[in-house]
Amino acid sequence: MASSLSQNLFDQVSAAVVELGTNASTYIPDNVAELASTLTSDVRLASSVVVLVGVATWTVFSSLRRRHSPPGPPQLPIIGNVHQVPTQMPWIKFTEWSKQYGPIFSLNLLGQQVIVLNTHKAAGDLFDRRSNIYSDRPRLIMAGEILTGGIFMVFARYSDVWRKMRRASHESFNPRAVEKYLPIQAEAAAHSISRILAQPESWEENLKRYTASAILSSVYGWPTFGSEGGIIKRLHAHTARIASAVVPGAFLVDFFPFMKYFPTWIAKWKRDGLAWHKAETDMFEGFNAGVAEKLSAGEAQHSFVTELIDTEERHGLSKKEAAWLAAIMVSAGAETTSTTMFNFMLAMTLYPDVMRRAQAEIDAVVGRERVPTFDDKENLPFIRVMVRETLRWRPVGPLAVPRQATEDDWYEGYFIPKGMVSIYNALLDNSDREYLVKTQSNQSPLNGSILIWINFCRDPTIFPDFDVYRPDRFLDESGKNEISPPDTHQMGHVTYGFGRRSCVGLHFANHALFIAIATILWAADILPPVDENGNVVLPDANDCVDAGVVVGPAPFRCRIKPRFPEAQAILEAHLASL
Ligand code: HEM
């Protein structure tokens, strides 16, 4: 199967060659043609020699290099393994290779050495325990430099600007600090579930609005459930533009870095990219300026940006960096969380017994006369582990953003040279079942060599029944306390990544998932659809969609019914009391 990478490159290079050829023939005078034909055979001979020498050198060099490299599939000269990496869901191929070559194997993608890690331990050893040398990201010229000016935190190099951004975001999103956002999250959840009860068929849209609204309100202090409308589409377009630029082969400049210095009048891609960066910067700076104005008028609600305004000098952040940082928190947080909620809804339609057990816990602790709150969390262990199990069962983050080693290193007898890209293949799925994949975006970052689904969440040695949604796998014998396998950061899964580059918004996300799950299960039953004869039609659990940014379930229907007649009125009274 041809990879998108080689296809993209091939298309771009052939277009350039055709254009060059067409232009050249126009200018060659007739008397030069004769001379050219006598030279042709000599040139052919010389170029054959050059190619042969090149191939021989490459073979010797690569065999020396591979002596200490992790094993991997045989490579072709120049392109390496590019042609073998599938355009769709590459982790299936990676899982196959891990069975053949072992849990740590390496690939060569157009000269770029890549290692794929397939165990919790290896990823923990490198990304957690040696994170001082495994916290860099590979260079992405178009996505990371031209479009986002080196300040898009997710792709930022392990640099001073990343450190400043990480410090500032950690200060406002660490476990204690996120507590100030709890009222916003609870209000947004109650709004969203109330709307879902009123229009059950719009559950998907309302869950999207929920996560966007909660994060926008927390970051900018905008009113909860009301301001997110058009901005959701706008931010999705923002993230999708960046994601599409990450696709290997989408821009030649990522293979030929000197092209970055082309003047803008000959490089349209660069001109467009810089113009886009400026427009996005203006918009984000406008958002922060709006908050600053309200703050000086004494009208601003406390938010991440009001904190940044107070602390940006201490953190050494410029206005532009602060504006991008705020926007990144929204774009990294909204879709990841709503897609996790879609997976939860899917699980409920497929596992009614799990839903009943959760509802029994809610009834016992909360009752039916008030909505659940964060104060109930302590007494709702089953709901807490549903959050973990949802993140484990279907990790939405195939964008396990790759790492790059900043120093030479040895691991398990293998040499890992500085500059080696490491990716972790976290969806270790030993069932040989195929995923049905529908691609909504033509240019998915999944299609590339460096962006991979995280996957240990389905490691059969740790979770023998990995494909089953079973939250109580994370409860101890008392049924009250959470347990976690090693190297899962006391969370039971690695869906939020590893070490210094792990998700900085994970505590916010865990709270958002908890309150939405508790509220919807308190208010409603989530049931599979029925056909015209009343027979249950179960959605296909393995039918997933690569939306370009995250992977989630393919659209499916479910029936949402209030559990008791007063649910809607209680939710509305609750909202009115806030
Ligand atoms: C269920 C929801 C979420 C999932 C599954 C998720 C997953 C991830 C993953 C896998 C990474 C890369 C980790 C690594 O390289 O090891 C990441 C990074 C990041 N996430 Fe999240 N995330 C979620 C929600 C959020 C939220 C709510 C926010 C903001 C409030 C956020 C902000 C970020 C940022 C800024 C980074 C870049 C960190 C860095 O490079 O230093 N995420 N996330």
Which helices and strands occur, and which strands form pairs?
Blueprint: H1 4-27, H2 30-67, H3 90-101, E1 104-109, E2 112-117, H4 120-128, H5 141-146, H6 160-173, H7 182-198, H8 203-220, H9 229-246, H10 268-296, H11 304-315, H12 319-350, H13 352-365, H14 381-393, E3 403-404, E4 409-411, E5 414-416, E6 421-424, E7 426-427, E8 436-439, E9 454-455, H15 506-523, E10 524-527, E11 543-546, E12 551-553, E13 559-562, H16 567-576
Parallel strand pairs: 2-6, 7-9, 8-11
Antiparallel strand pairs: 1-2, 3-6, 4-5, 10-13, 11-12
Helix pairs in contact: 6-11, 7-8, 7-15, 7-16, 8-12, 9-12, 10-12, 11-12, 12-14, 12-15, 14-15
Protoporphyrin IX containing FE binds at residues 153-154, 166, 169, 173, 215, 328-329, 332-333, 336-337, 340, 396-397, 400-401, 495-498, 501-505, 508-509.
